[in-house]
Amino acid sequence: xxxxxxxxxxxxxxxxxxxxxxxxxxxxxxxxxxxxxxxxxxxxxxxxxxxxxxxxxxxxxxxxxxxxxxxxxxxxxxxxxxxxxxxxxxxxxxxxxxxxxxxxxxxxxxxxxxxxxxxxxxxxxxxxxxxxxxxxxxxxxxxxxxxxxxxxxxxxxxxxxxxxxxxxxxxxxxxxxxxxxxxxxxxxxxxxxxxxxxxxxxxxxxxxxxxxxxxxxxxxxxxxxxxxxxxxxxxxxxxxxxxxxxxxxxxxxxxxxxxxxxxxxxxxxxxxxxxxxxxxxxxxxxxxxxxxxxxxxxxxxxxxxxxxxxxxxxxxxxxx
Length: 320
Prior knowledge:
Blueprint lengths: L9 E5 L3 E8 L13 E7 L1 H11 L3 E9 L2 H13 L2 E7 L4 E9 L5 E8 L6 H6 L1 H5 L3 E4 L5 H13 L3 E4 L17 E2 L3 H8 L6 H14 L3 E5 L5 E5 L3 E4 L13 H14 L4 H15 L12 H8 L7 E2 L1
Parallel strand pairs: 1-4, 1-8, 2-6, 4-5, 8-9, 9-10, 10-11
Antiparallel strand pairs: 2-3, 6-7, 11-12, 12-13, 13-14
């Protein structure tokens, strides 16, 4: 597995920003129905931007690359990154709106359903990556996902690999992928649904996740990390298979940012030199805190909060 010697704590993330429009209600309406909601909130979101906020709050030096529109939602994006100390490489595209996401949150369970319109970020291409090659070359970890076009994500992984930078690929939302992308991934971090989409293996437990991860290893990934919600996260590689349990930090309010919190925290911990299992524990603790708060980016905890959770006595992992 790629083990870059540069431990400067820098994480470069390629992805999208959207403004989240979150509605809370007792249930989803059916087609043609109008129901009363209990709350509404607007705030920063998008998988890439959420991961950037999570990593920055976790102590990493973060560079985030995206595209936004010349509009009010774009202003929210810029203000968010400035507030969090994130270096933004954000091209402003005239005539195309900044992305937005409709998020439904179930008042009872905190579970969510999301519709994302990527807007300007959906026009990203390989040239956006070429423009930040120097940033990637100077990083410890590179992260990308699939809300922006696949061509941009693939170029980012390729550039990072050429410069000896650790690559973390979050294959979300789920889609079919050509096999040539997998050897570019030191770590791939699907949830159960995404892992099933990539491998055809239905996942109901950790053993199923191991079987799916074996398929991903055969495709060329260095290690697969399958996130399993309340069951934690499974690291599976050619040499070890370790289940890191979830951290339960209070009543679940909203789960929409949990996966992004895990990936951002995992990347930040890798960038400062933690090994993969320690980085997973950090990511699980960060995600465990985030689900106790509303919002996606706003729910991400600070470094000291995560460290307090990690310092509590716990049975932190099981291996086989």
